[in-house]
């Protein structure tokens, strides 16, 4: 070894290790396991399991998209709006540059129907630069591609309505094609590809979110409609009191028998909060107000008949009666042999102004 290299290592610092050359016996012992023992082993046999074809497993479904919280959605929408704001500023600038170009003056405003009366009959989807500016202000463009499609529409409308027959039509066709090429050239040159890709991602993201909102809204509406139907059914069960007896039989019981006593139940009918005169401004607010109002008056469908009584105005359908100027639900008919009582209404109520 070169003496200079030896000087780099100091024996006192234990940087030099002395190794004796191995003799023949030491070499044999070192390689014996590798050459004699390991090499002598038979190769591993290929079992039937190794040759068995692998089972074809179905492709795992894609993971469900993570549902964002309301705060995360708001942050995402703010970021998206910042990007789309830059897009709108750029599109306004492009549209303004096209509108002030004298060559494209014919495309700056809608076609006058008085000058061209048959235009609407030929062109089903008119478009002009002023309409494009309105769509920009209404946030209807999410990508530059959407903007260019309306530019294409202006050009295609001009080519469709102005056939290549006379010089005037040819000039309009030429300027329409020039408008399209100019718009494409400006957008392709000045807009960044990454920015346009970001706008397309925002458009796709909003479509997915709108789809999810519509599904959720439909489910909520269906659930609400089901609850409304259920509530209406329950209300009908409560408000439509069962007939105690046949009204003819009840009339006989009330007017011809001496041992009949009328007892007012303690239950409160929500209909009692409906004013009995037109001067009152308070009335019951209820999801089934129409049903209550039907109970409030005589009902021909129930063969309703008002019976005179010194204390009560009694309706023979058994649904309710009037006492002290208030309509009440249910009453008891007590005889010497039988007690029949109508089911009472709950006392839950709230008030509102009469319309």
From TrEMBL:
InterPro entries, per the entry: ATAD2-like, Bromodomain, Bromodomain-like_sf, RNaseH_sf
Coiled coil: 66-93
Residue ranges annotated for the Bromo domain, each copy included: 107-162
Record SMART domains: BROMO (SM00297)
Matches recorded under SUPFAM superfamilies: Bromodomain
Pfam families membership: Bromodomain (PF00439)
GO molecular function per UniProt: ATP binding
Residues spanning the membrane: none
Taxonomy of the source species: Eukaryota, Metazoa, Chordata, Craniata, Vertebrata
Gene3D superfamilies xrefs: Bromodomain-like, Ribonuclease H-like superfamily/Ribonuclease H
Protein family according to the UniProt entry: Belongs to the AAA ATPase family.
Keywords: ATP-binding, Bromodomain, Coiled coil, Nucleotide-binding
Protein name: ATPase family AAA domain-containing protein 2
Domain of life: Eukaryota
């Amino acid at each position: 070894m070169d003496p200079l290299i030896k000087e780099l290592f100091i024996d006192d610092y234990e940087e030099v290790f002395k190794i004796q050359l191995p003799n023949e016996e030491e070499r044999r012992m070192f390689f014996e396991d590798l050459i004699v023992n390991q090499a002598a082993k038979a190769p591993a046999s290929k079992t039937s399991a190794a040759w068995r074809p692998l089972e074809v497993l179905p492709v795992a479904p894609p993971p469900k998209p993570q549902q964002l919280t309301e705060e995360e959605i708001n942050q995402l929408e703010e970021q998206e709006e910042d990007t789309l704001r830059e897009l709108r500023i750029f599109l306004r600038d492009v549209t303004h540059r096209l509108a002030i170009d004298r060559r494209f003056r014919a495309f700056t405003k809608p076609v006058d129907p008085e000058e061209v009366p048959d235009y609407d009959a030929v062109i089903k989807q008119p478009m002009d630069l002023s309409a494009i500016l309105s769509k920009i202000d209404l946030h209807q463009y999410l990508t530059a591609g959407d903007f260019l499609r309306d530019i294409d529409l202006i050009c295609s409308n001009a080519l469709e309505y102005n056939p290549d027959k006379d010089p005037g039509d040819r000039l309009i066709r030429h300027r329409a094609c020039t408008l399209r090429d100019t718009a494409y050239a400006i957008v392709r040159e000045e807009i960044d590809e990454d920015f346009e890709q970001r706008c397309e991602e925002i458009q796709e993201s909003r479509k997915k979110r709108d789809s999810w909102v519509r599904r959720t809204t439909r489910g909520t509406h269906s659930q609400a409609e089901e609850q409304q139907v259920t509530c209406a059914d329950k209300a009908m069960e409560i408000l439509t009191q069962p007939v105690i007896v046949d009204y003819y039989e009840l009339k006989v019981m009330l007017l011809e028998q001496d041992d009949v006593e009328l007892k007012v139940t303690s239950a409160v009918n929500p209909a009692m909060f409906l004013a009995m005169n037109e001067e009152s401004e308070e009335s019951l607010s209820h999801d089934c107000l129409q049903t209550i109002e039907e109970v409030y008056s005589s009902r021909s469908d129930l063969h309703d008949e008002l019976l005179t009584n010194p204390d009560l105005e009694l309706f023979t359908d058994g649904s309710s009666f009037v006492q002290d100027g208030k309509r009440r639900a249910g009453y008891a008919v007590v005889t010497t042999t039988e007690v029949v009582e109508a089911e009472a209404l709950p006392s839950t109520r709230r008030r509102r102004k009469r319309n």
